[in-house]
Here is the input.
Amino acid sequence: DGGITQSPKYLFRKEGQNVTLSCEQNLNHDAMYWYRQDPGQGLRLIYYSQIVNDFQKGDIAEGYSVSREKKESFPLTVTSAQKNPTAFYLCASSIRRLTEAFFGQGTRLTVV
Amino acid sequence: DAKTTQPPSMDCAEGRAANLPCNHSTISGNEYVYWYRQIHSQGPQYIIHGLKNNETNEMASLIITEDRKSSTLILPHATLRDTAVYYCIVRVAESGGSNYKLTFGKGTLLTVNP
Here is the structure.
């Protein structure tokens, strides 16, 4: 089935370690996005990519990095520079020229 | 993207219509109104979108006022599974530049009661 897959669903890391969250889509979508959600809050945009090998910072990019080497993959690295990394991370994709976005089921990252 | 204003929470009785309002008084002529919902601990789900005409699909109806400064999402027969946070978003639909950004506010928590 077509869709967008995030893995793992739950992730635990020690403070000071970098961690990479996976996002894969087989929908042939050009655009992909990463969002962060904190308890009781809306979604905040971290990074987005319109096309392979190109990406732009969102509203809260500090402490995060991404790559877009393949159309179907958009991994997010949470670096040790991110001061409050514990959050629910959501990946999404959308077709160029259409904006119905499909979301993954999210990764809940806990840093201890 | 135009800013939207939604009530933080609403209640609805099961089987009744749920009417969720959204104000977007600064909307531009080329901006669409989109609705998504997020069930607890899941990714958001697209519901419906429209420009100026009312829209209906299998999930909901979208009513946009004539001046386009506000809209209402209608769930005609709410069920317990419709309990979720509902987000109203306005943005342009064409590609290019920052138009790929989807900006989510805090939305409205709809609680459907038995």
